[in-house]
């Protein structure tokens, strides 16, 4: 028998890098899609606003739940020079992930072990006299053990009355710190303070008063001989609306993730980085008179088609939102009905305010967007939840996976590695193509996954990249001949690259049928397949539709009944019509 004593070990090592949320797996039913390109864009936008001042990006709470490691990597290459977090553990995690940028942690209690902080070169915020004394004691011990000089930031309470050195202790603390710096025990990076009401226009005087107090506090420190070179007060709202508060550094958090709390004053062009979505599991008809979900909060007035979506309060969706929001599937919004359960919600497919719902089929595997790209905006969803976007962003919990959309330039490299391609045709999905090269690579990957007899309906506005995608597709299939826009040729037949392989028929469905026929196609109705086949035949093509992959531009409503393997591919502008210069496209696919 072993008689090992249980032991408790205390260590100052940085903790293992860990992230609460996992990568999407084969059976993932709910995910946060994190658009790192939006985060890079927001960082650049905020940095451009503050010109000379440094940008400390706040990445507390796992980067507002966007994934610390990926976010930090992104923002450091987009203009942020410093990082801010709440706890020492969070700062340690940044070090454990291999980042050596300056990082400040401001939430701790006197009595916490601080050697790890000094050892990892973490700047410690000092929010009270007691914290300052504790830090100075630890710094002395640290010095006598041969460590280098720790950095601290004095936290001044200018009116939030939460943490920060308050007026009663301020002078004593400043003198103590000034003496310690003179003696070389610590290095003071500067002062910070936090605003109470920067997001409210009505509270401008409150913000002004806080800034005047802050300026006097900096003055006092300088009169005591401290340099305090880098001082900061500006959170996101102050960064975007008060250039007079930028000082030597700004400290935005939520703006990095695309929230502009000052939107009312006009948009500064930040992009929401997070989209929350979950899969449709099943659909059914609930007979008139029957109640839906726990407690029968909702009852069918008529026979009602419903769907179940895989997200519940265990994933962070508040139960108090039962019946108060919508989810969006392929651009069509459906009301959530009945109680929010632990793992699932029910939506009504027959109570959508969108007339397109009548023609829209919802299927198991479809993604239902809760908020974000392709659905309800984060602001709107937050309003429905009667809270602020900050709380909604930090709402999704561990069971929700995180899928990262790469920063533009990174995409190209990522896509050359075919094992890394985000296109998996097995289930409906979507991906971003920031460049023509990535569009082509996506086409190539689709081509590698489809076979003879497949019909691909390709939809997208003029200039969306349909031909580029088809060029990639031709490469993936290995067919012969150069792919061009079919607008003039109507149909072009590409021969297989090798015997037994599929060829490619590339057509403009609209031109094939002629305007008279094409213009009569009603949404949701399909053209009789014989009309299409006859039209193809009349062109005298030396090609067998069954032995080829047929790509039909403008094919919706035309080609769906030509085969039992019809892939619907849609290309959209990522940023809508507001940003015509943005080349990013979203590619969506689903089998119909
Ligand atoms: C969270 C936090 C910030 C960031 O605030 P945002 O409103 O998200 O920009 C800045 N400073 C401190 C001290 C914070 O705790």
UniProtKB/TrEMBL annotation:
Residues forming the catalytic site: 60 (proton acceptor), 294 (proton acceptor)
Record carries keyword Isomerase: yes
GO cellular component, one term: cytosol
Known cofactor(s): pyridoxal 5'-phosphate
InterPro entries xrefs: Ala_racemase (IPR000821), Ala_racemase/Decarboxylase_C (IPR009006), Ala_racemase_C (IPR011079), Ala_racemase_N (IPR001608), P-loop_NTPase (IPR027417), PLP-binding_barrel (IPR029066), T6A_TsaE (IPR003442)
Keyword terms: Isomerase, Pyridoxal phosphate
Family membership: Belongs to the alanine racemase family.
Name assigned to this protein: Alanine racemase
Organism: Corynebacterium anserum
Gene: alr
């Amino acid at each position: 028998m072993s008689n090992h004593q249980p032991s408790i070990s205390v260590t100052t090592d940085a903790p293992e890098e860990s992230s609460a949320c996992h990568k999407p797996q084969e059976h993932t039913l709910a995910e946060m899609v994190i658009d790192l390109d939006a985060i890079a864009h927001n960082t650049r936008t905020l940095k451009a606003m503050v010109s000379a001042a440094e940008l400390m990006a706040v990445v507390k709470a796992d980067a507002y739940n966007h994934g610390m490691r990926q976010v930090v990597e992104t923002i450091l290459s987009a203009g942020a020079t410093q990082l801010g977090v709440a706890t020492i553990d969070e700062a340690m995690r940044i070090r454990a992930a291999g980042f050596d940028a300056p990082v400040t942690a401001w939430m701790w209690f006197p009595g916490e072990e601080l050697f790890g902080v000094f050892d990892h070169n973490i700047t410690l915020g000092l929010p009270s006299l007691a914290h300052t004394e504790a830090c100075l004691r630890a710094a002395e011990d640290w010095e006598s053990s041969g460590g280098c000089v720790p950095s601290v930031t004095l936290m001044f309470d200018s009116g939030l009355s939460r943490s920060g050195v308050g007026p009663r202790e301020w002078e004593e603390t400043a003198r103590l710190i000034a003496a310690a710096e003179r003696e070389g025990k610590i290095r003071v990076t500067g002062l910070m303070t936090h605003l109470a009401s920067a997001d409210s226009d009505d509270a401008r005087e409150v913000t002004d008063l806080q800034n005047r107090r802050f300026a006097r506090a900096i003055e006092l420190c300088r009169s005591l001989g401290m340099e305090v070179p880098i001082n900061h007060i500006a959170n996101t709202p102050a960064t975007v609306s008060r250039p007079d508060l930028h000082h030597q550094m700004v400290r935005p958090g939520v703006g990095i993730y695309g929230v502009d709390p000052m939107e009312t004053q006009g948009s500064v062009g930040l992009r929401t980085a997070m989209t929350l979505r979950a899969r449709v599991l099943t659909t059914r008809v609930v007979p008139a008179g029957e109640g839906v979900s726990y407690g029968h909060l909702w009852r069918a007035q008529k026979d009602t088609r419903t769907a179940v979506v895989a997200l519940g309060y265990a994933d962070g969706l508040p139960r108090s939102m039962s019946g108060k929001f919508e989810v969006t599937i392929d651009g069509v919004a459906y009301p959530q009905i009945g109680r929010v359960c632990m793992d699932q919600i029910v939506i009504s497919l027959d109570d959508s305010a969108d007339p397109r719902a009548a023609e829209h089929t919802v299927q198991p595997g479809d993604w239902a967007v809760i908020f974000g790209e392709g659905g309800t905006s984060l602001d709107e969803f937050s309003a429905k939840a009667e809270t602020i976007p900050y709380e909604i962003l930090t709402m999704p919990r561990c069971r929700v996976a995180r899928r990262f959309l790469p920063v533009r330039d990174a995409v190209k490299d990522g896509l050359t590695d075919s094992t890394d391609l985000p296109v998996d045709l097995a289930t409906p999905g979507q991906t971003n193509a920031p460049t023509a090269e990535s569009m082509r690579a996506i086409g190539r990957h689709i081509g590698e996954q489809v076979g003879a007899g497949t019909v691909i309906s390709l939809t997208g506005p003029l200039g969306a990249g349909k031909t580029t995608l088809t060029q990639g597709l031709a490469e993936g299939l290995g067919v012969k001949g150069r792919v061009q826009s079919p607008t003039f040729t109507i149909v072009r037949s590409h021969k297989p690259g090798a015997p037994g392989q599929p060829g490619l028929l590339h057509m403009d469905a609209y031109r094939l049928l002629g305007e008279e026929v094409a213009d009569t196609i009603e949404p949701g109705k399909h053209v009789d397949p014989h009309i299409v086949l006859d039209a193809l035949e009349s062109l005298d093509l030396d090609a067998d539709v069954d032995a080829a992959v047929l790509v039909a531009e403008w094919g919706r409503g035309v080609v769906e009944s030509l085969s039992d393997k019809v892939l619907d591919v849609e290309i959209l502008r990522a940023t809508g019509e507001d940003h015509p210069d943005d080349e990013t496209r979203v590619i969506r696919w689903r089998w119909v």
